[in-house]
Design brief:
The structure is a homodimer. Chain A has a 3-stranded antiparallel sheet. Chain A has a domain at about 20-115: Winged helix-like DNA-binding domain superfamily/Winged helix DNA-binding domain (Arc Repressor Mutant, subunit A, Orthogonal Bundle), CATH 1.10.10.10. Chain A starts with 7 loop residues before the first helix and ends in a 17-residue tail after the last helix. Chain A has helices spanning about 10-35, 40-50, 60-65, 70-80, 105-125, 130-150; strands at about 55-60, 85-90, 100. In chain A, strand 2 (about 85-90) and strand 3 form a beta hairpin. Helices cover about 60% and strands about 10% of the residues of chain A. Chain A is mainly alpha-helical. Chain A has 6 helices and 3 strands. At the A-B interface, helix 1, helix 5 and helix 6 of A face helix 1, helix 5 and helix 6 of B. Chain B binds a DNA duplex through helix 1 and helix 4. Chains A, B: InterPro entries: HTH_MarR-typ, MarR/SlyA-like, WH-like_DNA-bd_sf, WH_DNA-bd_sf.
Chain lengths: ~160, ~160
DNA sequence: CCGGATCAGTTGTACCTACAACCGAAGACC
DNA sequence: GGTCTTCGGTTGTAGGTACAACTGATCCGG
């Protein structure tokens, strides 16, 4: 069962991509943890809530928007709630569902954290690229995502048959 | 201290890159764990050793090649040693240093794991891209790496002054 | 040589994530 | 209306990573 091996160009791209995937989370986590006591994933969760109407989202919806599994999100939101940055309330229309809402403290946290975070993103990624490369990166990442998570489902479809997806 | 915010194109690129960085490790880890009982990082370590002369590398050198910190590598290598895939021996020329060597079992493990892993890499990343995009990806990732890890040092320089780097 | 600084590496602890098992609520079917 | 299945979410636990503290070996200046 020999696969098609990687040629030189493919290998170069792959090795560098792996390095980025390995290093980038550490850089982002480090900056956010030092400056705000937040994981990059924590920040992602707060940011998604801050952009939602009523600053509120169902847990499942929040999970898909943050590319996370539901168990992971559940733990993270519990911790954020203990810190007063988020509130959880049972959804009145569906007894199973839970709504997560950003508190005022959470909103303030996002507002004060965003500037330095954006600066870090620029410094370590975007400012290293030409405008053409930024466009190319968007297209490349989009293509890869279509393979990594064909339907943006993530948490929802653990072992679905191919049909209907 | 307001930063330059992200324009539409930059935001598109960034959001997608974050999604890739969030999802890709899970896909790689999942495949390797199911098929070989290895983390992606474990595999990376074994692969680097398998390409080295004598299948042997100093811990520090191995750390830089795998983009890891030394404490992390130390834990991982200990586990791999307990499984008989790697051997550690004190370096005779420098009493501080430790050499890590791939055992025969470790070599066999890499040989039998590589094909399916390469297939996964193709399926989820490279085959989603045109040849031009693969080239672009290599250049983009290279540019980003120059910011993430200016000297490929990683573990070596925790708080070095800028001069001399 | 001899003491301080640095280096290579290990260990311990705290935290985060993945996975699996679980629970109650909502539909589906007859 | 009673069971079966699915859905939305939480909890417990095992395992991996980060960070800091530590050990012993080497190097450097006097």
């Amino acid at each position: 069962m020999e696969p098609r091996w990687l040629d030189e160009t493919e290998m170069a791209a792959w090795v560098r991509l792996v390095a980025v995937v390995e290093l980038l989370p550490g850089v982002l986590d480090g900056q956010l943890r030092r400056d705000a006591g937040l994981t990059h994933f924590d920040y992602h969760v707060l940011a998604m809530l801050s952009e939602a109407p009523e600053r509120t989202l169902r847990m499942t919806e929040l999970a898909t928007r943050t590319n996370a599994t539901l168990p992971r999100l559940s733990h993270v939101v519990r911790r954020l709630e203990e810190r007063g940055l988020v509130e959880r309330t049972p959804c009145p229309y569906d007894g199973r569902a839970t709504d997560a809402r950003l508190t005022q403290a959470g909103w303030d946290k996002v507002r004060e954290t965003a500037p330095r975070h954006v600066a870090t993103v620029r410094e370590h990624v975007l400012d290293a690229l030409t405008p053409e490369q930024v466009t190319q990166l968007a297209e490349i990442a989009d293509a890869v995502l279509s393979r990594l998570d064909p339907d943006g489902r993530m948490a929802a479809a653990p072992g679905l048959p191919a049909a209907g997806r």
